[in-house]
Each structure stands twice: as C-alpha cells, then as structure tokens.
Design a protein that fits this description.
The protein is mainly β. The chain is built from seven helices and 38 strands. The chain is globular.
Length: 556
C-alpha cells in the first residue's frame, strides 16, 4: 500500500486506525449539517503549498446548506436548501463564493418563514393561518414537486443546470452562480422526473433517465438530449428541444417500481439497474393525504432481487435477455466498458438499501459516544463490485455454465433458462479497503475513459457516515493510495487532467475539506492524481457544510 497519506507532521498515525478504524471516538458531525450564510461576492483564500498554474477554471459544488425556516426544521439531510459553491482557480490563485439557489421552494419558504414545500424527508404542513376547513382540504391537493435542486451540476446543450430527482431543474450562470429560469422536463419530453447523474457522449449529446406511469403501467425511460446547436452560444434561455425518449422499459412490478439514482453507459449500451428499493405507487400518488414524506414510500424488499436491463444506445432496442443478480442497491456507478463480447460494469454496491432512510438530521447530529460511533460506522458500507454481462446470449448458448471467458475476471454469468442470465459479482477491492469502511462518490477521468477500459478511480472512504478519507484505486491490481487526516472530512474527489496529458492519471484531484472541530477552517485540497500527494490547499474563511456532487468547469 502507498504511504502517501502520511504527508505532513499533522497527519494522523495510521497504525492503530488501520488495525481498528473504530477504535477512537468520533466527534459530533452536527457542524457538517448546520445552516450557513452565503458568500455571493468572491473572496480571496489563503494558499498553502502550491496550486498548479495550469489549472484554469471553476470547481462548482452543490449540496444542502439551510436546514430550517423560522421554527420549522427539516428532517432529512437531503431536504436542506441548495447551496452552490464556486472555487475559481487561475494562475495559482483561488477565490471562493457561494449562493443559495433561488428556487421557488427557497423563495416561498423565506417569504412565509416556515417550510411550505415538501421535500424528500420533510412533509410541509398546511398554513396555520388558514381556517380549519381550508387546512383540511389542502391535504387533498396534489403537491407540486420541489425545485430545490441540491444534488448536482449538470450540462445540457452547453448550459449548466442544477438538478435533483424531480422533473424540475434550474439553469445557472456558472460564473456568478445566479439562478436563471426554472425548467420542467415534462414540457420537452414525456417524463415525470430525471436523475441528477446524466451521461455525456463524445459527440456532445446528454443521456438521462426519467419515469412515466399510466393505465399501461410504470416505465423507466431513457432520454437523449442532442448536442448544442450552432446558435447555442448566443442563446440565453433553457433549451431542451430535440429531447426524445429512446427506450421505455416496463417495470417488472408496476405497483412497486424501483428507486434509481443513476444508470450505466458504455460506448454502445445503456444499462438500467432495477434494484429492490421499491416505491409504493399508490402511496406515491397519495403520500401527502396520508401524512407521509416521500422517503416513507420507499422500502427495501430483497425478495425481488436485481435485474439489469440492457439497451442498445444507438437503436434504443432493449435486449430480450434479462440479466439477474442477488439483491443489492447502488447509488453511483464507477464506469462500464465493452471487451471481447462482454459488457463490464463497475459499481458501488451495498447489501441493505434501507439505510437511505437513516440519513436524518437527528441521526447525523448525534453527540459522540460509543453508540453513536457504532451507528455512524453502520451507515455507509458500500463496496466496489464488478459485474460482467455476456452480450451474445441466444438459443444456442449452453445452460448452467459460466459464460465469462475474459482473462483474470472472477465475475460469473450463467444462463439459467431461455432469456435469463444470472450474474455473480467480483469484489473489486482487497481486504485493505475494509480498513477504511466502505467507499462512495466514485469519479474517473471521465473525458478520456467514460465508457472505455480504464484503470483508476477516485472516491471518498467512509470510515463512518461522512467520508473521512480520499482513495485512489487501481482496478487492475486493487491497490489503494490514501489521503487521510484526523478530523478532516473530504467531499467527492473530482479529477482534472493536465494540459496535453497522455496518461490516465496525469492531472490533479480536487476536493473540499471541512472539519467539525474548528470554525471557518474549510479548504480546497489539490492532490497530484498520480502520486496522491498533496500539492496545495486554498483555505476559506467561512463555514462550508458537507455537500453532495460537483464538476470542474474548464475555462477555454
């Protein structure tokens, strides 16, 4: 294992933590999920070490940043109001700014000084100023989905948007972080929602997934948004024209469709993973009348197992073969590629999807102690796994034998009956990873390697509920390089390639580091991606809460 994590005198000694990562008590994580003020005007940062002068652009981050209005408090971490962050990097200097997304949800809540729009885990209550009859009948009004797009920055036709998992996005000015117009997916294409994790092909098109339901059942829809047009640079409005559903996949259980957060894409295929986190469709339509928040309509039902739906990305045709596996849940995929008649998929997977409901603010703000440590250490134990789908399965394919013939691959796939293949995964890690808990928020050199064979990915190591280390994994050797300091909590690592890079890991990794131990002590970390050693940091004199996802917007 690389010892690159021991980089400075203040780095923690890893000997005891490697043997037993839960040995020492964990501090309260409440500061990571506490409300902060926005910083709309860029402010300078203090540089320690060196920020490479070739980095020229903005590191954009998104995530919850406000957790109450008046006396009302949000219940779940996912519910907090979206706070956008911008680290602008130029000539070795860094400035920082942040703005709350001026969503309808944020504006209405602010005007009323209470929570008036329901979120994932928090049900908005009727206006107490209304009379009893008005309040009663308000329960029977279908609530509008939130536009609190606090998950990710995404790109369509050259424009940046912030996104969550409803049918609403907001266009954003990536330089000022000003909120532009609200965009309803259903105005452009027949879907009721879209993920916050689209994929991009090399021609500039964007792919995403939404759903639709009606008398004919529940469908998972794959959507393609075309590349920017000739006049895209001069157009100052949201434009998803030309978006089309290229494939509709019928849910196996129409009354219990699956929750999904992302999907898999290789150069020629898209794979939708129908996992056993189920949504109660009837409750989904009536959850407010029943007095339940959205998260309460989700349930972990492992008896349904996992189904992988294979779709040709160019024709939209779904394979007649159903690829099945043991029950698991996944939020984020690492990468997928094709090799000698097989589709190789690498995912972050867990064995108990019920943990999603445990990310409540009450849980995350627990005081430190033995029981809290045990609870934190149980929340995120996702591990990297590899599944291999044989692409050429037909009537002549033999039954009950492993079809995976790729050299050095331990994953298996067996045709169990006509039109059905059962897959067994390969653990894409060594026992060394278990010293750091699980891992999440995987990132690759996306521009070079997405949908193609690759070697490295970067992620957060989850010693407990929030990432407490940064990891670089070699999927060929399963070796790790680690950056870890006691009391520091990194965000999702984002890779930025160096100019004219020829090797996959020639560049830097960016991550925002926060700590609950000190006020106004966050910083932007820059690691050499190849050696995983620290190059520099830009210290920010404001409080930054823990976020979700981000992108690097390269200046041309």
């Amino acid at each position: 294992m690389s010892k690159s994590q021991v980089q400075e005198p203040q780095a923690e000694s890893l000997s005891s933590r490697q043997r037993c990562p839960q040995a020492s008590g964990l501090e309260s994580l409440a500061p990571l999920v506490s409300s902060v003020e926005e910083t709309p005007d860029p402010i300078p940062t203090t540089i320690k070490g060196t920020i490479p002068t070739w980095i020229n652009g903005s590191f954009l981050r998104n995530g919850p940043g406000k957790f109450e209005f008046g006396n009302d408090r949000y219940v779940h971490w996912f519910d907090g109001m979206a706070l956008m962050h911008r680290f602008h990097i130029s000539e070795g200097n860094v400035t920082y700014s942040s703005r709350f997304l001026r969503s309808n949800s944020y504006v209405q809540n602010s005007e009323k000084n209470r929570i008036v729009v329901s979120e994932f885990g928090t049900l908005a209550m009727p206006d107490p100023c209304k009379n009893i009859f008005a309040r009663f009948f308000s329960y029977f009004q279908i609530p509008e989905a939130t536009d609190n797009a606090g998950v990710n920055f995404v790109k369509y036709k050259g424009d940046y948007y912030v996104s969550t998992e409803t049918n609403y996005m907001r266009r954003i000015d990536p330089e000022s972080l000003e909120t532009k117009e609200k965009v309803d997916w259903s105005k452009f294409v027949a879907v009721n929602s879209a993920t916050a994790h689209p994929h991009y092909d090399r021609e500039g098109a964007t792919y995403n997934m939404g759903n639709s339901y009606g008398r004919n059942g529940f469908f998972y829809n794959i959507v393609r948004v075309p590349p920017p047009g000739e006049n895209a640079a001069t157009q100052d409005s949201a434009n998803l024209t030309g978006a089309e559903v290229i494939c509709s996949i019928r849910a196996a259980e129409p009354r219990k469709p699956s929750y999904y957060h992302s999907f898999v894409m290789s150069e020629n295929y898209i794979v939708f993973i129908e996992q056993p986190i189920k949504l109660n469709l009837m409750m989904m339509l009536l959850y407010r009348i029943m007095g339940k928040s959205f998260d309460k309509i989700m349930s972990w039902e492992p008896q349904y197992g996992t189904v992988f739906h294979l779709v040709d990305r160019h024709t939209g045709k779904e394979s007649e073969v159903k690829y099945k596996a043991a029950p698991m849940f996944t939020l984020h995929q690492i990468n997928a590629f094709e090799e000698d008649g097989f589709l190789v998929m690498d995912l972050c997977c867990g064995d108990d999807g019920a943990v999603i409901g445990d990310f409540t603010l009450e849980n995350l703000r627990r005081e430190s102690g033995e029981e809290t440590d045990k609870f934190y250490n149980s929340l995120c134990r996702n591990l990297p796994r590899r599944y291999v789908l044989p692409l050429n399965v037909d009537e002549q394919t033999p039954l009950n034998q492993n079809l995976v013939t790729l050299h050095n691959y331990k994953a298996a796939a067996t045709k169990t009956q006509p039109g059905e293949v059962y897959m067994t995964h390969e653990e894409l890690h060594s026992d060394e990873l278990l010293q750091y808990g699980g891992l999440e928020f995987p990132q690759i050199n996306y521009e070079k390697c997405n949908g193609r064979p690759y070697r490295y990915f970067y992620s957060c190591g989850f010693g407990h509920v929030f990432g407490d280390s940064l990891l670089k994994m070699d999927v060929h050797t399963k070796e790790l390089k680690v950056w870890r300091y006691a009391g520091l909590y990194p965000s999702e690592p984002v890779f930025v390639a160096s100019p004219e890079a020829t090797e996959e890991d020639d560049g830097v990794v960016l991550s925002v580091i926060i700590t609950p131990r000190e006020e106004k002590s966050s910083f932007l970390l820059v690691l050499d991606a190849k050696t995983f050693t620290e190059l520099g940091r830009a210290e920010v004199p404001v409080n930054i809460p823990s976020g979700t996802h981000g992108v690097f917007n390269k200046m041309v």
